[in-house]
Amino acid sequence: MDVKKIVLAYSGGLDTSVILKWLAEEYGCPVIAYAADIGQEEDWDAVRKKGMATGADKVIVSDLKKAFVEDYIFPAFRSNAIYEGSYLLGTSLARPLIAKEQIRIAHQEGADAVSHGATGKGNDQVRFELAYLGIDPKLTIIAPWRIWDLNSRQKLVEFARDHNIPVPVTKEKPYSSDENLLHISFEGGILEDPWNEPDEAMFKLTVSPEKAPEKPTYLEIDFEHGDPVALDGVRMEPLALFTRLNELGGANGIGRLDLVENRFVGMKSRGVYETPGGTVLRNAHRALETITLDREVMKIRDSLVPRYSELIYNGFWFAPERELLQLTMDATQKTVNGTVRLKLYKGNCIPVGRKSGQSLYQESFATFEEDTVYNQADATGFIRLNGLRLQIQALQKK
Fold first, then answer.
1. Are residues 209 and 342 in the same domain?
2. Choosing a second label site near 177 at 20 to 30 A (CA), which of 188, 322, 335, 394?
């Protein structure tokens, strides 16, 4: 394979450090190590130094936090995206953003190839490569895990030591993790047995519900067209607002999930997730929709949520069908304006109030007290007509 320059999606961890050195040796060309800052806790100066020491021609760190919230998290949450009823797509939403920036850097640096550190068993290989193909199919894609002979952790460690690449100590963390602004995920190692309860010491973004404050936290979120714009009456930029939701949710033990999910490649996988801010945001958004969305519009929109979420999970963010569904989802959000009051308490996020200038809820119609706007006698014909087919079926059976 004739490759002149490669841009590698680089984290500074063992896998991508080995890949960085391996690419330079295997292809004999410059390799640019590109790292995406999407909100994970990281020493970026150390990442830069390690990348250069490992053989990178250049190390580029891109701050993508603002774009992640505004262009990926918020559109997905306007759509109430959720995979298999539980997973809020923290990793799935990050991959297309990382890949898009990787391609931008490849064009900027005159590279003709891109590479990633995803294995041949997981979802991320699909997400990265479908993004590459959807943006610039002319780039050569190199997936080392699918072509090299370093097919075990032991071989990776040996390669690293042979090439003076520092090997992180992992005895205290017998699992793998992936962190960004939306969540942190844990999988592998001791979590591969779905009977094993996660160790409390593992969690990073949330306190345990048992240790959360005894007093509930109340907050109000203002929405405009389905997006949060203010917290407790104070307007905030999307990144600052979402960061604050993470803090509040985490402090109250909200957002933990233990899930066995179906990977796109066909196998089941056990993952443990912390998504504090996302859990708060989704609950608030759903609560506001209950008073601002028409019943039939909500039914149609909700019927599309599983498909929309599956597209994101499977890596089709840049596919035309996802973009079409996004337009549909966003069209439903024109009236999703108003305020939701939430109570956060020991792992629970409970909507306790909602109001909107475009509310379809009318107390004068819904009240159990005497009213002058609803004729209860009208219900007799309504029931008779809706029950007509049932009546005919019952007569036929007799």
1. yes
2. 322
Same domain? 98 vs 182: no
| CATH number of the domain enclosing 240 | 3.90.1260.10
Q: Which residues of 97-130 are buried (b: 16+ CB within 10 A; e: fewer)?
A: bbbbbbbebbeebebebbbbbbeeebbbbbbbbb
In angstroms, how far is the first alpha carbon of the chain from the final one? 76
Q: Which two tokens stand for residue 349?
A: 């996020």
Is 302 designated active site?
no
Whether residue 172 has pLDDT greater than 60: no
From the candidates 78, 95, 270, 354, give the one annotated as an active-site residue: 95
215 and 155 in a common domain: no
**Catalytic residue selected from 15, 79, 227, 354:** 15
Q: Which of 48, 79, 92, 124 is catalytic?
A: 124
Q: How many domains does the chain have?
A: 2
* Candidate list 37, 71, 104, 176, residue with the active-site label: 176
The rounded mean pLDDT for the chain is 95
Q: In whole angstroms, give the CA distance from residue 127 to residue 118.
A: 10
DSSP lists the bridge partners of residue 353 as 341
> How many helices (H) and strands (E) are present in the chain, helices listed first?
14, 14
CATH code of the domain in which 151 resides: 3.40.50.620
Q: What is the pLDDT of residue 175?
A: 76
Residue 173 pLDDT more than 70? no
Residue 365 domain-assigned? no
Q: Mean pLDDT, to the nearest integer, of 184-203?
A: 93
For residue 176, indicate whether it is catalytic. Answer: yes
Are residue 146 and residue 189 in the same domain, yes or no?
no
Which pLDDT score is estimated for 170? Answer: 52
Q: What angle do CA 193, 199, 204 make, to 5 degrees?
A: 120
Please give the residue range of the domain that contains residue 341: 176-293+336-355
- Of 190-199, 243-252, 272-281, 363-372, which range is least confident? 363-372
